[in-house]
């Protein structure tokens, strides 16, 4: 009976994702042509009987704008990114990406228009080539160029079969930093207009972090970037910082504006990094 109950649960009670393609509502070729995002009164919960994890989020992000997203654990940072990719469907509200309602698109069309570098690098058993370009869309020269810009060309050149060198499941034969840089190379190939960094530098060393930050400023300078920040140093020179608290927007403004708030949440977070680092961050924000 337990087995029957499990089958019934998965067959009839588990929600099914939206279709990958909606033939009558496909985005035009090359979408998104802009990195502009508009979020209107967004509410989201993980199950109908659970409380809201996002409660009335409204925000306009301009094309090419760099937004840092910060907040305590459970503030709604990752939930906001899940809503953007429709990993969880909103309870209400609307997200518009480059002029199109995200909820009206098929999931494949929506997600292929965005890029993400997650906190935990996602790599598959196969080769460097299949991890970078699983659908065979790019030339070898493009793959090598992306690897070079991510600082991985020498590593892959030294592998026995180069681009066809073996990658173990989860990238176990690579260091944590190399796995993250391989994910960065994958994002470079897409040349995305919108890229999400979900605490992507939380587990890497400062050298790898520096490579990623340089790439964001050079290779993705024409993209809209949303970064969930683990290290405040990485977003202190961004255009704006979004501070979430309890699923709501607590503060939103340039780093310098938020640091000027006497009892501001962002200011408190910066000061908690220590006097020396805090002074450095404030100086960078003032001159950004």
Descriptive account of the structure:
- The protein is an alpha/beta fold and 288 residues long.
- It has a domain at 117-191: Rossmann fold, CATH 3.40.50.
- It is 35% helix and 20% strand.
- The protein has helices spanning 2-13, 77-85, 107-112, 128-132, 140-149, 153-158, 176-190, 206-218, 255-259, 265-271, 275-287, and strands at 37-44, 54-61, 66-70, 92-97, 100-101, 115-117, 126-127, 166-167, 194-198, 224-228, 240-245, 248-253.
- The strands form three sheets. The protein has a six-stranded mixed β-sheet with strand order 6-9-10-3-11-12. It has a four-stranded antiparallel β-sheet with strand order 2-1-4-5, with helices on one face. A two-stranded antiparallel ribbon has the order 7-8.
- The N and C termini lie far apart (64 Å).
- InterPro entries: AAA+_ATPase, ABC_transporter-like_ATP-bd, ABC_transporter-like_CS, ABC_transporter_C-like, P-loop_NTPase.
- Its main location: membrane.
- It holds the Pfam family ABC_tran.
Attribute tags:
single chain; 288 residues; alpha/beta; Rossmann fold; six-stranded mixed sheet; four-stranded antiparallel sheet; 11 helices; globular
What is the fold named in CATH at topology level of the domain at 117-191? Rossmann fold
Cα(first) to Cα(last) distance is 64 Å
Number of helices: 11
- Give the spatial strand order of the biggest sheet: 6-9-10-3-11-12
Helix share of residues?
25-40%
